[in-house]
Amino acid sequence: MAQYQLGRRRLLQASALAFAAAAAPWIASTASAARLVDEDGYDLWLRYPLVSDADRLEQYRRSLTSIARHGDGPVLANAEAELRRAIEGLTGHTPADVRASKAAIVVGRVQDSAVLRSSVDEDRDFRLREQGFVITSVGARNGRRRIFVIGHTERGVLSGVFHLIRLLQLHTPLSKVSTRQNPAVGLRMMNHWDNRSGSIERGYAGTTIFGWDDLPVISDRHVDYARAMASIGINASVINNVNADADFITSGMLDKLAPLAALFHSWGISLWLSVDYASPLVLTTDDEDPIATADPADPRVRQWWSAKAGEIFSKLDGFGGFLVKANSEGRPGPLDYGRTHAEGANMLAKAVRPHGGKIVWRSFVHEDFSDWAEYQYRTFAPLDGDFDDNVILQTKYGPIDFQVREPVHPLFGRMRRTHQMVELQLTQEYTGHAMHTCYLAPMWREVLSFPTQGPVSGPTVAEILAEGSLRKPCTGIAGVSNFGNDHDWTGYQLGAANTYAFGRMCWDTDTDPRDLAEEWVRMTFGTDAKVTRAVVDILASSRETYEAYSSPLGLGYFTNPGGDHFEPNPRATLFQSHHTTAEGTGFDRTAATGSGFAGQYPKAWQDVYESPDTCPDELLLFMHWVRYDHRLRSGSTVIQHIYDTHFQGVEEAHRFLLAWRALAGRVDGQRHADIEAAFTAQLEHARLWRDVVVGFYFDYSRRVDERRSWFQVALGGRRVLLGGRANLLP
């Protein structure tokens, strides 16, 4: 299936490129297209083209003439090098290297320079956390400005430099670059699900970027990955799959990983590893006296992990710790030996504690699909307060599995004596893979702003996660990466909007997703206002569009459950995610008559979710089974809402394609053709979603569509909708 999808997409790309070639004479005749150079997406948002605004370019050239760095070390050296690279590209001039007293831009740690100390307010600016920074812009008599980028730590300086670069990319006046910032959460982590074979579980952009077999040689792509992550504030990267191969912590593999860890460390990023909980048993089989258990209470197991942790921390610069998936989907864990998850996590925590390491323990566990929403809460809620201080419980944002709409997980309101991380997913496992534009930042913002104790009762998820940023990072946000070795990194050009927004939202959990989309568009495609407006509008509505033609009223999990999680197949998930009959649809998760999930929330949320009269419509079918004639707040019945949204979703996907086509000549031809091909494929697949879901509900309900007429026919091995009053195939 994956090979078919890739081949299909390449065919669409070839068609789009042919169209672009045929249109080239017309495009070349426009003044804007004459200035465009083809790009392939590799540079992501780290593009430093010459500033297009003449007045701003003159201001930058007049003021950004020289750089002085205070402090040594690879992190500060990389910060200075990136700043020089950006200024040279944006202004066309190379900044000079001069003394701090005369430099136009001075960067460094405040404690290393009297010049830097004199440029900040000690009472205010010295309250910086690790990776916090100050940027100060000062006017001079000659009309030029001096800029100071200051932090308490090297990581803070690096974060400040990238923020300054971002402001310059957005053509900000130098008088307005002054700012003081601290990250909202302490641990801002990228989770890669890369396998030892090079494949990526739930990866839709090719194979691993890390090139295991080529290590310890460091490639340009390794460097560019680290630059990209550092630029958006990522400070931790788990490089291998949570379904871990024990080979990653063998001595030979650690030697291969050592240069990669050093590279990450030089960009302010700690390398982490996922580990197989049964590693002592797996990796000692050839010993004279092998360990025959992974029981966390066994002294030999404890000693083995302690020695292995010592080896890893000694070989990998800046190593952060272990990510663990245990007793989930067939993975080994402490429950195999009658121990709790807390006992299992704490054993590993004690092994890494002498080295300052941490354990991130995933809470995604389930026995079967009949109660997987409830099982996680029943398993972990009784353990609140039992985890060691260097253990962080990582919980998916919702109780199911990265659906486009889920309620926020009740564990966030329950585990108040446990360090927590929220797990988000950038790779679009259930939101269209690398075919559907689905900008996920609006959903992440909803999760982070969710008040955990009731509709108006805090703390919010973001406030819970912020608590750990006051000390050494012990809470945070993790994202399952969408990067692969496709040249554009994410498999389709607009996918990088999710990567960029994820990092920026980890840094500032209050930021507006639309503002992040605008930043990304301007840094990726330039400052053309029409391009910015069109692409931001597409991104801002793309999640609701995908939801409209795929997942009605929070029901979710309509994809094929067999493996790819891509094609629509609501029949295959009957009983697992919905109980559709001839009379109605949904899943009863109430405390009174259903699975009991609604009762796992604090009472204020129970009162909201328990009744269909008070449950938000967007979660109605997640929480309740209702009849097809149940009226929503909009006045529509449930069945008519399903029909309407699936047709409207396809119309929106068609609008995306037309809006993008209208930008021909304003975006370079190569990227325009590639993105047009992606929108064309999305529209075709949106029609499939509509046909399958609408057909499914008509077959069960036998309720006619009140607003349009259509009928089902067999065509090309699938049933499609054809009809009269409505234009079903835009």
Structure notes:
With 730 residues, the chain is α/β, with parallel strands linked by helices. It folds into three domains: 128 residues, Chitobiase, domain 2 (2-Layer Sandwich); 325 residues, Glycosidases (TIM Barrel); 178 residues, Alpha-glucuronidase, C-terminal domain (Alpha-d-glucuronidase, C-terminal Domain, Alpha-Beta Complex). The chain is 39% helix and 12% strand. The protein has 23 helices and 18 strands. The strands form four sheets. Strands 7-8-9-10-11-12-13-14 form an eight-stranded parallel beta barrel. Helix 22 runs antiparallel to helix 23. It is globular, with a radius of gyration of 27 Å. The N terminus is likely disordered.
Layout of secondary structure:
Layout: H1 2-28, H2 31-34, H3 54-63, E1 66-70, H4 74-91, E2 96-97, E3 105-109, H5 114-117, H6 122-125, E4 133-139, E5 145-151, H7 154-169, E6 179-181, E7 187-191, H8 220-231, E8 236-238, H9 251-266, E9 270-275, H10 279-283, H11 299-315, E10 321-324, H12 341-352, E11 358-362, H13 372-380, E12 391-396, H14 411-414, E13 420-425, H15 441-448, H16 461-466, E14 476-480, H17 496-507, H18 513-525, H19 529-550, E15 584-586, H20 603-609, H21 620-623, E16 625-627, H22 638-661, H23 669-701, E17 710-715, E18 718-723
